[in-house]
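Residues pack. Consider this:
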Amino acid sequence: MTPRLPRWLTDIAVLAVAAVEAAITGITESSTAAGFGAAAVLVLVVRRRWPLPAFVLALPAVVLLGAIIPVIVTLYTVAARHRSWWLLGGCGLAAAVSLVFPLSEPGLPIPIPDLVLDIIYSTMTAGAPILLGRFLHTRRELALRLAEVKEAREHERQLDAQVILTKERNQLAREMHDVVSHQVSLIAVQAAVVTVSTPDPTVREAVEHIRTLSVNTLDELRHMVNLLRASGTPATELAPQPTLTDLERLIDNSGIDTRLVGSAPPGVEAPVQRAIYRTIQEALTNVRKHAPGAQATVELSHDDTDLTITVTNTPPTRPALTLPSARHGLIGLQERAALLDGRIHAGPTADGGFQLRLRLPIT
């Protein structure tokens, strides 16, 4: 796209050319005619603010001096500002008549062929700035309309994407409710039956713990389903969301011999608290799945710049069951840490255990 000249530079160039023309045509004329020429040049300064009065004040310079530049410029400005063809036709006719019959050469007969040529020349001279002004005005209007159409299409595209996303969320919510919730409910029911029927206190305690975890999982699933169904609406809520005050309950219900060491600094923001909770939750889940019988230590420490959460477990004491896993949990933790400008590291320890460390900046 060709760069446009600054408006002030264009105005200076127009004034300079008009002033030169007025000076050349007014050298041999009277002081009155020269005054009208100077006035025609000066009105170019205010032509954008008052285009029609500027055009009227520029007409005497054509009639008395034959200076056409102020009239052409002001006529273009009128055409660019007004859309009434009656007004533009009247202004064009006045300009054409002034060009055909200037008073700078009074009393001289004009031959018919020359008169016809003068009329054609004057008509074209007066019509050109009108057509150019209307063309540029129409182009600006079309640019505005195209911008509005583009904005409307973008808004429509966003609405379509939101509709598709809402359908996918509703489908996911139905699947979670119909499949996952159903199976977890069966686990809770079967655990309750075993709790009543078994005489072994150790088995009863383990099964009771399974039932508690199933009930808690159902509660979280219910909140997730409600959140998915409400996404994209004013009813969307993330509450209730876990905070650091829920860590004790999380550790007590984990079914793992876990020790909590240290604490977070006061005033930790809610997103950071959720990230800490979910990181510890995922780490303890991995310990329960991949390191049966292991002990875990959850350590919270901080300095002037960083908050560090470390979850370390000992080697397993029992063989682990083969459970399906796509490592989505660790991927989600990495994404959550990245959103908070944090870093996460996970890997085995020297004694055969495993360690997960989350480091978040303190703002």
